[in-house]
Amino acid sequence: MAARALLRAARVALTGPARGYAKKPAMKVKGKSVPQEGLKPPEVCTDPAMLSAYAMGVNYFKDGPEVALKPDSEYPDWLFKIHLGPPKKLEELDPDSIQYWRRLRKYNTWQRNKLKKCRKL
How far apart are CA 36 and CA 52, in angstroms? Predict the structure, then answer.
Protein backbone atom coordinates (compact mmCIF):
# COMPACT_ATOMS: atom_id res chain seq x y z
CA MET A 1 0.00 0.00 0.00
CA ALA A 2 2.72 2.41 1.01
CA ALA A 3 4.73 1.57 -2.10
CA ARG A 4 1.73 2.27 -4.32
CA ALA A 5 1.16 5.68 -2.70
CA LEU A 6 4.87 6.45 -3.01
CA LEU A 7 4.84 5.60 -6.74
CA ARG A 8 1.74 7.76 -7.28
CA ALA A 9 3.41 10.71 -5.53
CA ALA A 10 6.58 10.25 -7.57
CA ARG A 11 4.57 10.11 -10.82
CA VAL A 12 2.79 13.38 -9.99
CA ALA A 13 6.08 15.06 -9.10
CA LEU A 14 7.78 13.93 -12.33
CA THR A 15 5.02 14.94 -14.73
CA GLY A 16 5.02 18.58 -13.57
CA PRO A 17 2.07 20.92 -13.62
CA ALA A 18 -1.09 20.00 -15.47
CA ARG A 19 -0.92 23.15 -17.58
CA GLY A 20 2.21 23.66 -19.60
CA TYR A 21 1.19 26.70 -21.63
CA ALA A 22 3.75 29.41 -22.13
CA LYS A 23 3.07 32.87 -20.80
CA LYS A 24 2.00 35.45 -23.31
CA PRO A 25 4.86 37.90 -23.91
CA ALA A 26 4.31 41.36 -22.50
CA MET A 27 4.21 44.07 -25.13
CA LYS A 28 7.02 46.55 -24.60
CA VAL A 29 6.36 50.07 -25.77
CA LYS A 30 9.35 52.14 -26.76
CA GLY A 31 8.90 55.87 -26.57
CA LYS A 32 5.56 57.56 -26.28
CA SER A 33 2.53 55.64 -27.35
CA VAL A 34 1.00 57.38 -30.34
CA PRO A 35 -2.08 55.97 -32.06
CA GLN A 36 -1.07 54.58 -35.43
CA GLU A 37 -2.99 55.51 -38.54
CA GLY A 38 -4.63 52.59 -40.30
CA LEU A 39 -3.88 51.73 -43.89
CA LYS A 40 -6.11 53.50 -46.36
CA PRO A 41 -7.53 51.47 -49.25
CA PRO A 42 -6.53 52.61 -52.74
CA GLU A 43 -8.72 55.20 -54.40
CA VAL A 44 -10.98 53.76 -57.08
CA CYS A 45 -11.39 55.78 -60.26
CA THR A 46 -14.96 55.91 -61.57
CA ASP A 47 -14.41 58.40 -64.41
CA PRO A 48 -15.32 56.60 -67.69
CA ALA A 49 -13.06 58.85 -69.79
CA MET A 50 -10.02 58.02 -67.64
CA LEU A 51 -10.86 54.31 -67.56
CA SER A 52 -11.11 54.10 -71.36
CA ALA A 53 -7.86 56.02 -72.02
CA TYR A 54 -5.53 54.88 -69.19
CA ALA A 55 -4.65 51.62 -67.41
CA MET A 56 -5.58 52.69 -63.88
CA GLY A 57 -3.52 51.18 -61.07
CA VAL A 58 -0.78 49.77 -63.32
CA ASN A 59 1.79 52.49 -62.59
CA TYR A 60 3.73 51.26 -59.55
CA PHE A 61 5.61 54.51 -58.97
CA LYS A 62 4.33 56.82 -56.24
CA ASP A 63 4.52 59.88 -58.44
CA GLY A 64 3.86 60.02 -62.14
CA PRO A 65 1.07 59.74 -64.68
CA GLU A 66 -1.00 56.63 -65.30
CA VAL A 67 -0.03 54.38 -68.21
CA ALA A 68 -1.84 55.37 -71.41
CA LEU A 69 -3.54 52.64 -73.44
CA LYS A 70 -2.22 52.10 -76.97
CA PRO A 71 -4.22 51.08 -80.05
CA ASP A 72 -4.81 47.34 -80.51
CA SER A 73 -2.41 47.21 -83.46
CA GLU A 74 0.55 47.92 -81.15
CA TYR A 75 -0.11 44.86 -78.96
CA PRO A 76 0.89 41.29 -79.98
CA ASP A 77 -1.73 38.98 -81.50
CA TRP A 78 -1.38 36.30 -78.81
CA LEU A 79 -2.58 38.78 -76.20
CA PHE A 80 -6.08 38.76 -77.69
CA LYS A 81 -6.15 34.95 -78.02
CA ILE A 82 -5.74 34.28 -74.28
CA HIS A 83 -8.59 32.25 -72.80
CA LEU A 84 -10.05 34.37 -69.99
CA GLY A 85 -13.08 32.26 -69.11
CA PRO A 86 -13.33 29.36 -66.67
CA PRO A 87 -10.91 26.47 -67.28
CA LYS A 88 -11.99 23.98 -69.93
CA LYS A 89 -13.26 20.59 -68.82
CA LEU A 90 -11.35 17.43 -69.62
CA GLU A 91 -13.92 16.40 -72.23
CA GLU A 92 -13.46 19.69 -74.12
CA LEU A 93 -9.67 19.30 -74.46
CA ASP A 94 -7.89 17.48 -77.29
CA PRO A 95 -6.36 14.18 -76.03
CA ASP A 96 -3.20 14.89 -78.05
CA SER A 97 -2.47 18.17 -76.23
CA ILE A 98 -0.27 18.69 -73.19
CA GLN A 99 -3.10 20.57 -71.42
CA TYR A 100 -5.26 17.42 -71.58
CA TRP A 101 -2.62 15.29 -69.87
CA ARG A 102 -1.88 17.92 -67.23
CA ARG A 103 -5.57 18.22 -66.39
CA LEU A 104 -5.91 14.40 -66.28
CA ARG A 105 -2.95 14.17 -63.89
CA LYS A 106 -4.51 16.85 -61.68
CA TYR A 107 -7.87 15.01 -61.58
CA ASN A 108 -6.12 11.74 -60.74
CA THR A 109 -4.17 13.43 -57.94
CA TRP A 110 -7.39 14.86 -56.51
CA GLN A 111 -9.03 11.42 -56.63
CA ARG A 112 -6.01 9.74 -55.01
CA ASN A 113 -5.96 12.34 -52.22
CA LYS A 114 -9.68 11.81 -51.55
CA LEU A 115 -9.14 8.07 -51.30
CA LYS A 116 -6.17 8.52 -48.97
CA LYS A 117 -8.20 10.79 -46.73
CA CYS A 118 -10.96 8.20 -46.33
CA ARG A 119 -8.65 5.20 -45.87
CA LYS A 120 -8.74 3.61 -42.41
CA LEU A 121 -5.50 2.61 -40.74
Answer: 37
Give the residue from 83, 61, 79, 62 showing the smallest Cα distance to 70: 79
What is d(CA 14, CA 21) in angstroms, rounded to the nearest whole number? Answer: 17
- Does this model's pTM top 0.85? My answer is no
Give yes or no for a contact between 67 and 81, defined as CB atoms under 8 angstroms apart: no
Is the pLDDT at 119 greater than 70? The verdict is yes
Higher-pLDDT residue of 42, 90:
90
C-alpha closest to that of 57 among 69, 67, 47: 67
- Three-state SS annotation for 37-79: CCCCCCCCCCCHHHHHHEECCCCCCCCCCCEECCCHHHCCHHH
